[in-house]
Amino acid sequence: MIQLYYFDFDVRNLFLRYISRIEINFRTKLIYIASNFFKDNPFWYVDKDCVKQDFLNSEDYQRALDDLDREMVIIRDKKKYSRNYAPAWKAIEFMSLGIVIQLFNNVKDKNGYIRSRIAMSFGINSPNQLSDYMDAIRRLRNSCAHGKVIFDYKLPGALTNAAPVKLNPSQITNLSGTYEIFKYLLGRVSANRVTEMRERLKEAFDKIEDENLMKIITQNTGIDAKNL
Hints:
11 helices, 0% strand, mainly alpha
């Protein structure tokens, strides 16, 4: 059981390290593409002409905006320029991944240009599919950050099963399915980071000396240590 504890600890920290690469890339693309689309409105993220009104008024988003006012960068910006909000490129950097995904889902643009362009940058045709993928990453990130057991990770619902990440039926509700999506998105950010992550994940598996324990991990996660 000690080996299992250390395995779970190592994998959680490993996943968090590489999930951050995806999160930063997704956040940066939303800021860059949306801010260029709404180039005359640096505060587009709080404008009802740019973002759906229901989302702007939602409790979650209002709380996120309130939380921004606790960040020194935002406090200084508002004080220096005597304005109610900091520009999008500053403010969105401090929002949680969950809020950034919701903002992506609720942005208003002609013919869906912003969402489609961001999705295509990840090699995905459907913005909704990218949103589903990012939500799967968010769930994994939160589980890792909160110290939840990863070797027995289960999803509340089935993952999206369509190109570019085709899953078999056994993967759509366990860790292996999320891991495949994780690898794909990370690969769109950096192929070298995928290679690096696989090597370090293999090192974590190699520390498992008990064959029965290895079987339990493989059965629960659906991840084959020989095919990472």
